[in-house]
Design the sequence.
């Protein structure tokens, strides 16, 4: 089955620790995204990547880092600089751009990772 | 991207049609209307999208007013499994500097009751 997989489903972080959330997709999508969701709130964009080896900051990038070394993978690291990391993290992918234009913003989401601080 | 306004919550009886409104009065001519839904503790799921014409798929229908300033998502026969938060989003398809910046608001929590 094609899809997007996030792991782990639950993650705990100690004070001062960096943790990495995994996101893998086998949809052959160029674009991938990370969103953060706090209880009762909508989604806020952390980082996005339109193509391999390239990524841009979203609205709340401080305290986070990403890499896009492979088309299929877009891991998110929550660094110790993120003082309030407890949230539900969602990864998504989409076809991306075709000939320089956004082809279709139909996003496919993973099932999320709940990060909590010990 | 245009902002949207949705009621925070709605109830619907099981088996009846659920009509979820969305206002997007500042929408521009090339912005699409997208609907997603999120069941508790899961990732959002795409439902439908449209530009000017009404659209229908296996999940729902999307009715867009002639002036495009509002739209309604219709679930024709709501079931208990349709209980979720529904997000209405408008977005330009050609904003290369904003690619991926779909702005999810707080949406409408739809409660389908037996």
Sequence:
């Amino acid at each position: 089955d094609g899809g997007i997989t996030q792991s782990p489903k639950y993650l705990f972080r100690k004070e001062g620790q960096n943790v990495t959330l995994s996101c893998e997709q086998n949809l052959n999508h160029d674009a991938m995204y990370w969103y953060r969701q706090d209880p009762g709130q909508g989604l806020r964009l952390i980082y996005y990547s339109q193509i391999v080896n390239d990524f841009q900051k979203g609205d709340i990038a401080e305290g986070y880092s990403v890499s896009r070394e492979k088309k299929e993978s877009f891991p998110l690291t929550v660094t110790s600089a993120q003082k309030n990391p407890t949230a539900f993290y969602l990864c998504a992918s989409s076809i991306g751009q075709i000939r320089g234009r956004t082809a279709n913003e139909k996003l496919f989401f993973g099932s999320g990772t709940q990060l909590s601080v010990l | 991207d245009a902002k949207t306004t949705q009621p925070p919550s709605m109830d619907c009886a099981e088996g009846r049609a659920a009509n979820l409104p969305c206002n997007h009065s500042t929408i521009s001519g090339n912005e699409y209307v997208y609907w997603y839904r999120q069941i508790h503790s899961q990732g959002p799921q795409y439902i439908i999208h449209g530009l000017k014409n009404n659209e229908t798929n296996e999940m729902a229908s999307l009715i867009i007013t002639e002036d495009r300033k509002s739209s309604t998502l219709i679930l024709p026969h709501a079931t208990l499994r349709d209980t979720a938060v529904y997000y209405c989003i408008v977005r330009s398809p050609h904003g290369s500097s904003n690619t991926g910046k779909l702005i999810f608001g707080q949406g409408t929590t739809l409660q389908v009751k037996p």
Chain A has a mean pLDDT of 90. Chain A touches chain B at residues 31, 33, 35, 40-45, 48, 50, 58-59, 88, 90, 92, 94, 96-97, 100-112, 114 (CB under 8 Å).
